[in-house]
Structure formats: structure tokens, C-alpha cells
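Bit of a strange request maybe. I'm writing a small parser for C-alpha cell strings and I need a real example to test against, not something I typed by hand. Could someone generate the C-alpha cells for this chain?
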Amino acid sequence: MRIKQGLFGVGLLALVGLTHATTWTAESPHVGKVNAGISGGAVVQWQCDGQRCEMSGPWGAGLSMESCQQLVAKVGPIQSYGNSAGQAWAAGSAELAQCNRPSRAAPAIGMNTWYAQSKHQGQVITQIPGGVQVVWNCNGRECAMTGPWGVGLSLEACQDLTRKIGKIQQYRDSTGQQWKQGSKALAACNAVAP
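Reply from user aminoacidic:
Good idea to test on real output. This should exercise your parser:
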């Protein structure tokens, strides 16, 4: 009888733990589902709607720098990071600045994010060198695409994007490489725009 009561007690504790899930949010223009690691090695799924990314689970009530950086490596820099337990890193905070740093070092963990300054809105499917199809998420200010496709700016990839969304004002990646307005590379990219 004591064993059954003990098992019942353990079951209740597990149920209580599940009902006290915490929700984490990150302000981001990214759209779609993102799988990212959290402290301890688990992989969780974030749901991003173009304004914020959100995920819930029974992983405590604190904010983890490692978890924040894993998300940033997938979606690019974020504007805030917090949870339903009342913890928050606001824009301008030292913690959020540290969290956003991995976006420049994303290739070290196999991911890179590319950005194109554009007024286009919505998702755009393009091809990158090698024939791989990718999805750009555009929020009216910038289009972004993340993936394990190396480091650097590709004229071919840039041109395939401008063929679909028109001329862009800047093209860059999360390692710090960029083609600015007035550069020959950006002019070549925009030369194929409709």
C-alpha cells in the first residue's frame, strides 16, 4: 500500500510540475517554427509570428543566456527576451546585447543569417547556389533567412531574391559582411530586379 501511495505522490508531483509551465517570449520579426537548444541540451520549438517568438515548458523560471543565444543563432538579433515568471531583458540591457552577439558568430555553430533591406512583406521562396530552396521572411523593413549554408554573400542568391521582391537597399549576413548602397556588388545584385 505504501508503494502505491508513494507512486501516486510522485505522479501528483509530476502533474503539478507540468501545470506550472513557463512561457518564454522573444521580440523578433522572424516567421515560422524554430527548433533551438536550451540549457541542459534539450531542443524546444519556438513559434514565431513576425512580431514575437514564443515557447512554453517546465524548465524553471529564469532566463538562460545559452538558451537566448541558441534562439538568436536561428532567428537573428531580438529586441527583448522574457518569460511569464516576470523575468525580462529589455532593449538596451547588457544581457540582451550579450545574447545578440552570437548572431555575428553563428557560422561557428553551423548557422548564418542573411538580411536584405526591403519594404517587401511576406514570405519569399528563392534558390541559393547549389539549387537549395530557402524561405525569406520579410516584415516591411527587412527580409531575413537563416540556415547552415556557410559564410559570405552570394551574388547568385542576392539576385534570385531581387528578381522576386525588387531592388534592395542593403545585403548583409550575421558575420558582419555587407553590401551597402552605392557598392558595385549591390548594384550588380539589383541589376536583375524587375
